[in-house]
Batch of 3 targets.
Target 1
Amino acid sequence: MTRPWLRWLPAVTVPAVIAAGVLAGSLPASAGDPLPAKSPEQVLALIAQHRETSFSGTLDQTSSLGLPELPQAGPGAANGDTAWLELLTGPHTARIYRDGPDNARIQVLDRLAERDVVRHGAEVWFYNSKDNTAAHAVLPAGLKDRHGSGKDAVPAPDQLAEKLLAKLEKSSDVSVGTDVQVAGRAAYQLMLTPKSSTTLLASVAISVDGQNGMPLGVEVKARGQADPAFRVAFTKLSLETPDAAIFTFSPPPGATVKELPVPDHKSDGAKDRPDDKAKAKEGFKDKVHVSGTGWESVIELPAGALNGTAGKAPEQQGGLGSAASLLAQASVPVPGGRLLSTALVNVLILDDGRVFAGSVPLERLQAAAAGR
């Protein structure tokens, strides 16, 4: 199941380590029980050993990114494509439930509304109570066979943490900080401190359950800020199997329901996809470029990436999409384009439509745009 946490711009992989975790059952450690000392390698091994089962919990997320308030009305304000931007501008609470790889539910709780993502077997639902709209999709039968019973389609936190650490460990000093308590559980703090002095990030702390190795929280600090720029962590956690009824969803009376098309994944071959779509997808991949390494990486997206027209002819690209429009409103003019600046990530949108993003200063993005 696709999770909204995977799209949150700053430290995009980090929140995902938390949002769809899987646990190995154990009893909570009491606040007074000190954890045995472990090296960074041992804490990493603790994360890797942890296995899938069931759990439920409450997550709190806070952001102090320096983003301006985004408009609450107007084109795209409530669009699903822009919901991830709204998630960055203030505190949010979510309830998460999981029972094996094929049953999961995330409820993002707003002050006057609720957004749900529910997966039950092959059925996937998206619901927004604010406007009483729902979207439904049925995953193709070939998806499980192709992805190992859905494990790749619903990545476990040990897989995500492994990918994160594989990309950043070599460019970071990795250490174990002071033990912490998260959701009543004693946890190690795995600290990643960038070796680079160029990146905007100061440190990433991953709270790892001292008994079962589950990542319980992530805290990201930016240079020059005392408080975390981004934090997501469990405040409540239960290792009991959730009630099966939680994963059954029916749209409320009067809801507007949209059926989402899902591509057939019976074969990996391009021959099973329309030639124009396959070529457009491959063409887009070819145009995405990454320069630099580790924390200093800069991602270049082709013109049209923000409005879904990358790879199309200029006459087909049209205007900005809703996400791009909101980005433009939150950005400031700079030579050659506009800059969306946050404590953790800078995004440079050039006048020619190309986009450069990274946890680096504007000058680094401009140098990448100039091919230096």
Note: Residues 92 and 110 are 7 Å apart (CA to CA).
Target 2
Amino acid sequence: MANSIKQNSELTLAQRLARPELLDLTPYESARRIGGRGDVWINANESPFNNSELNKLNRYPECQPESLIKAYSEYSGVAAKSIVSTRGADEGIELLIRAFCTPVKDSIACFGPTYGMYAISAKTVNVDVINLSLTDEYQLPYGFAEQTAGAKVVFICNPNNPTGTIISKQDIEQAIAAMPNAIVVIDEAYIEFSAEYSVADLIEKYPNLVVLRTLSKAFALAGARCGFLMANTDIIDLIMRVIAPYPVPLPVSEVAEKALSTQGVELMRQQVSLLAEQGKRLSQALEAYGAKVLPANGNFVLAEFTNTDAVSQSLQQAGIVARAYKDVRLKNRIRFSFSQESDTDRLIAIFSKNK
């Protein structure tokens, strides 16, 4: 290890868990990170011609647009210095694995059934995966802290995708405290649908906590690919060493800032309420049909059928695409995203007809 790296006792938790080579890595300084003052900008090999109606599209964007980070800070209540904007929450997952896991040597842990990209992101860079199962009530299993021992990064999706189930804030905090030697990542992609369960307010309390967020769900910007990674500044420093030079395209930043405005947040909350109403209607129709329905804490519901093939065929014939799974723990289950009233009406009509 390079001489410039501190003795282990002097390192922060994030530095102790980081890939050792990152501690001596000088981050790439893009033209925008270096900055400067002047009227003629010829430091980034950009074209001087803007051929778009969008201003400055011929120029590279800021690595972390200050106005976007400020907007998300005001929305989330998390300090701007503890926020990194990413290309969706998916990039946040990959950045954490790249920053903390050495291929072949290290591992991550996750609790299934859950979002598949945790495992895929790890396996594609030759990082091992400790797959643990949630309980029958979709809670963290007994002895999870011992079973995840050795994992560098532990992912907990809350509300969980694809089950839609929730783990209480108290239990999440206990889990963070129970795994002090791992980076504990709480994926809050669906938190706007169950806002009271967020642990973003605990970031300053726990040095091993990371919260992932996205504008893809409640903010209706899935096509923009804008997410956020929130953590203490020690973790943020390491993430900024491995992040791409320009992860936030200018059009994405502009549309995201608009979504995070006072009017944008109010619109989001109105739409969350509308989707919750449609979710209740759909859940009731599924239960009346005879399906076993899990409580919905996101913008979707997971239903278990005794005649899954017949249901799938009815949906296909009606031109409706829902989500089925190959995971044995999700056998005979179909996930339905909540949608607008007319879509819900079509679904209800199918299940009413086939009772």
Note: DSSP finds twelve helices and eleven strands in the chain.
Target 3
Amino acid sequence: MTSPHDDVPQPPTWTAPAGTGTPPPEQVPQPGPPAPPPPPPSGWGQQPPGYGSWGPAAPPPPGVAWRPQALQPGIIPLRPLGMGEIYDGAFRAVRANPRVMFGLAALVVTIAVTIQSVIQWYVTGLLAPQLSDLSTEVDPSGQLGFAEQMGSSAGLLISTPVTALATTILTGLLIVSVSRSVLGQVASVGEVLRSWRVWLVVGFSFLSGLAIMVVAAVLTTGVVLLAVNDQVGPAVLLGLVGALAFVVAAVWFSTRTLLVPPALMLEGKKFWPTVARAWRLTRGSFWRLFGIYLLTSILAAIIAQIIVFPASLIAQLVLRDPTATSFGSFVVLGVANVIASTLSTTFVSSVVALLYIDVRMRREGLDVELARAAEATA
């Protein structure tokens, strides 16, 4: 803001013209009546709305609530988050603690993928000779490698629980690191590994998977019994309708239990009360959670394929192994799977943890408690 005196014309400051070394003579003012002062600027003496930059801010427009700037001690601002802020916070969580988010994650995934590859390699060598007769009937030329592919698929199916267990454990451990990064703190590898509540997450994942398998088995049994009793039409109808209902129910159940792992890891309460509380937290937020988690899963799958697809091309073209069942192919694909699983699991776990924090800030005012905790820590 300027004063009225700033508008009074000042005498010019002379400078030497080009090519001369002496300044012009100083002009002597001639006697005469003094000039009247210039008129004040328009609006001078009147306080504009908001008192300029030094006074109180202008009131917000009608219908818009005023709120102070959110505190951000860590990877996210302590207020309800948008989808872009959740994704940005997920990447910031990796940069805030790469030793856990990348180092520990890569170690766990490497162990799991190594065990999976060994099991798959062993089962492939064990079943391939047993499937040679069937392979001769399906593929007389042997160019498709039917027996090797079937053996490899069986080995992958048998070893899937190993990677599922490792992913579940890793998800629980990474949630601890993300929650500390929200407050601007860094969790060490030892602190994360001492989180025994990760076994509660494993137990919940086991019970959830078991429930889904039981429902699928009941549906399959009903279809088979109808088909055996020559009820082809009802069997087909039950299969189609039941499959659609099963998919819808599985998606609904997965979304309603999406916040159970972070709740089990962070709240410190008993198992079933925590599961029930996480179920209640998703009430009224189903479509938002479903949409963000679906987009996150798609992005994670794309990231994984960007890494795995070139490795499969190397196995087929460079190593000349179309079935990808040789030792070299297992090594190349194993390394690619380690990188892909590390990136995708880290990203998805961070998003799930931030979704849990976001829902609690929206429904329970967790941002206020987190702000107090951050100020107390500071």
Note: The chain has a mean pLDDT of 80.
